């Protein structure tokens, strides 16, 4: 298994290099002059030239990439064009809300969706099965911002149970932290619960028709034991895959959710950096999200080998 993991890690190195080249080149190909944005419309040509020389924009593109890659390897993502703050510090300051929202969404989605999908497969054709599938279609079809505003209207404005917007760090108390995270988590989890539950149901139904399931039933094993001990484990690979895809989709979901609930996380930072055309900040955020996506895929590959040892070979 160790050799399999090492091979998967080595396979990600070319992917990381490709992502770095694409992230670096993407912003160089977009219209607009970072020096002009930083200096303003009233800047003289001499001032623009000085800013370009300071930012290294007057050097060959290969030299710019080599310098930028060296800085990234040292953990230096540059300096924001507008605030003058290091990009690494800006990302670190906004990381906690996004990380809390993402982790709570994945945990809640998985804990709700997998049992729902398994129960729907177990009671195939029943009213509960049809109700779960109807919820899956509805939950995956309704946009996140619509769900978010509906939850705010019901639980915050009508009932007054939860705060409308904002974020409280863990240092302010677990109760406040949880209260401010409930509505964003529910809004973001709805679509993922629907997606994971639907895939879990389909995967388990496919496994339930295999020969070893019929053999287990012939031995007198209870239906619940067949579902939990045999069907669910052997259907784990597609379920893990869709959970991994859901983590990747969280990147776009976090941007919308943080805007709706006014969370000071990375999603809001993405919107602010794009509106300000802050090139170093946009570059650092894209690189961070890309690396997260690569790490998630690597983790999924490793989990494949845990649930299905045949994959190692």
TrEMBL record:
It is found in: Cell membrane. The chain crosses the membrane at residues 9-27, 99-122, 134-157, 177-197, 235-261, 281-307. SUPFAM superfamilies: MetI-like (SSF161098). One of its GO terms (biological process) is transmembrane transport. Its main location: membrane. The keyword Protease does not apply. Signal peptide: none annotated. GO terms for cellular component: plasma membrane. Residues 95-304 form the ABC transmembrane type-1 domain. This is Peptide ABC transporter.
């Amino acid at each position: 298994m160790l050799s399999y993991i090492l091979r998967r890690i080595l396979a990600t190195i070319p992917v990381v290099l490709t992502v770095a080249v694409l992230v670096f080149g993407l912003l160089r190909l977009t219209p607009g002059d970072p020096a002009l944005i930083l200096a303003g419309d009233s800047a003289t040509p001499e001032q623009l030239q000085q800013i370009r020389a300071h930012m290294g924009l007057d050097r060959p593109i290969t030299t710019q990439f080599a310098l930028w890659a060296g800085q990234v390897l040292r953990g230096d993502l540059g300096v924001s064009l507008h605030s003058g703050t290091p990009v690494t510090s800006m990302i670190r300051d906004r990381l906690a809300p996004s990380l809390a929202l993402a982790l709570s969404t994945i945990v809640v989605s998985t804990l709700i969706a997998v049992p729902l999908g398994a129960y729907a497969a177990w009671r195939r054709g029943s009213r509960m099965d049809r109700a779960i599938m109807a919820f899956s279609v509805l939950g995956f079809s309704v946009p996140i911002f619509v769900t978010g505003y509906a939850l705010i209207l019901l639980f915050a404005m009508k009932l007054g149970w939860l705060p409308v917007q904002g974020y409280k760090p863990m240092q302010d108390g677990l109760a406040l932290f949880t209260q401010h995270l409930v509505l964003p988590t529910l809004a973001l989890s709805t679509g993922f619960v629907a997606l994971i539950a639907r895939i879990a149901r389909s995967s388990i139904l496919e496994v339930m028709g295999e020969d070893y399931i019929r053999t287990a039933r012939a031995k007198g094993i209870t239906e619940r034991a067949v579902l939990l001990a045999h069907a669910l484990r052997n259907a784990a690979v597609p379920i893990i895959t869709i959970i991994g895809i859901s983590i990747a989709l969280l990147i776009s979901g976090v941007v919308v959710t943080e805007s709706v609930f006014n969370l000071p996380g990375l999603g809001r930072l993405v919107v602010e950096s794009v509106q300000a055309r802050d090139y170093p900040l946009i570059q650092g955020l894209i690189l961070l999200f890309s690396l997260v996506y690569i790490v998630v895929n690597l983790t999924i590959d490793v989990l494949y080998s845990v649930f299905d040892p045949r994959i190692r070979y």
